[in-house]
């Protein structure tokens, strides 16, 4: 077989590296200053109107308003107190800390840095309310089975912080958008997840102690559900002010509360984004609805006892 003429002079182009493209960063900054918040007029609105900055601003505005409406809702107490960690567990944790860090993205071997190479400063996120190894009640089978509500309430504790963060949700998510930008679809899908958790199912109350972790987990899960190329776990965790394990735990807990129903159809997405926006505008009685199912004590009845009473 004959060789293709001129094949020796042709080389494959290099793989694109967005992190090293200064022009893209300048365009993102210019677009970010020009983009206004996305406002939808009804359940039928055009996706083409949404920009990444406009979508994240809609998420920020709606969730912040829900937090103001809800007020301060205390988390449910743990199902049982966490056990004292053993010396062996402490030693294994120290060994893991000494492991080398992974690259921040598949195309950038650089350690935690922004698009222009400057270091990403850590964010001072308060301690979570729930212990990382805090047990979650298992939904068993038979007379001793715990109700699903108990398990959901134990999982929802993972999104609570002990104190309100020293920064607003706007500062937090705009920082995430600056260092780990996502597409408009990711932010809108995250808004749909938040609407399910905080408004429709009321599994997690939207308060100033929960909205940061809820939004971080929702954006991360939405990006994994929609995008082919994602930011690395290390980078998102550092920008979000959590550890890699804690970020993974938040993702898993969010998936459990959503019953792993992560796919959102176009009509449902438009409806939930609109309803989230309207819930924030109209100030619906979220707090009253939460007080029914989100008490300060865990229910202690088993399924059999509840059946006998009913």
From TrEMBL:
Which stretches does UniProt call biased (Basic and acidic residues)?
Answer: 88-100
Compositional bias, Low complexity, is annotated for 104-114
Q: Which InterPro entries match?
A: Cyclin-like_sf, Cyclin_PHO80-like
Question: One cellular component GO annotation, for this chain's record?
Answer: cyclin-dependent protein kinase holoenzyme complex
Q: Which GO terms describe its molecular function?
A: cyclin-dependent protein serine/threonine kinase regulator activity; protein kinase binding
Q: Name one Pfam family in it.
A: Cyclin
| Region (Disordered), start-end ranges | 70-132
Tell me the superkingdom of the source: Eukaryota
PANTHER family in UniProt: PROTEIN KINASE COMPLEX COMPONENT, PUTATIVE (AFU_ORTHOLOGUE AFUA_2G07660)-RELATED (PTHR15615:SF32), PTHR15615
Protein name stated in the entry: Cyclin-domain-containing protein
Which organism is this entry from? Answer: Elsinoe ampelina
């Amino acid at each position: 077989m004959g060789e293709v003429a001129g094949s020796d002079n042709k080389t494959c182009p290099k793989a694109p590296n967005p992190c090293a493209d200064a022009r893209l960063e300048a365009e993102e900054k210019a677009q970010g200053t020009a983009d206004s918040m996305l406002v939808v007029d009804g359940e039928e609105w055009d996706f083409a109107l949404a920009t990444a900055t406009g979508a994240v601003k809609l998420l920020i505005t709606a969730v912040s308003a829900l937090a103001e409406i809800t007020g301060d809702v205390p988390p449910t107490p743990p199902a049982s107190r966490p056990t004292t960690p053993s010396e062996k567990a402490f030693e294994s944790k120290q060994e893991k800390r000494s492991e080398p860090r992974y690259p921040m993205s598949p195309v950038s071997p650089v350690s935690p840095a922004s698009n222009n190479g400057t270091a990403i400063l850590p964010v001072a996120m308060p301690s979570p309310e729930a212990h990382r190894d805090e047990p979650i009640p298992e939904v068993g089978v038979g007379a001793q089975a715990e109700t699903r509500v108990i398990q959901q309430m134990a999982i929802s504790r993972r999104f609570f912080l002990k104190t309100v963060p020293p920064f607003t949700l706007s500062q937090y998510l705009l920082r995430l958008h600056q260092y780990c930008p996502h597409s408009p679809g990711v932010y809108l899908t995250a808004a749909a997840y938040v609407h399910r958790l905080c408004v429709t199912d009321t599994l997690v109350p939207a308060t100033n102690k929960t909205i940061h972790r809820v939004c971080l987990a929702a954006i991360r899960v939405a990006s994994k559900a929609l995008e082919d190329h994602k930011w690395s776990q290390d980078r998102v965790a550092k920008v979000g002010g959590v550890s890699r394990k804690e970020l993974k735990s938040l993702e898993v807990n969010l998936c459990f509360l959503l019953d792993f129903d992560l796919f959102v159809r176009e009509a449902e997405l438009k409806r939930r984004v609109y309803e989230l926006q309207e819930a924030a505008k109209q100030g619906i009685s979220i707090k009253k609805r939460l007080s029914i199912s989100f008490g300060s004590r865990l229910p202690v009845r088993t399924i059999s006892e509840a059946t006998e009473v009913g």
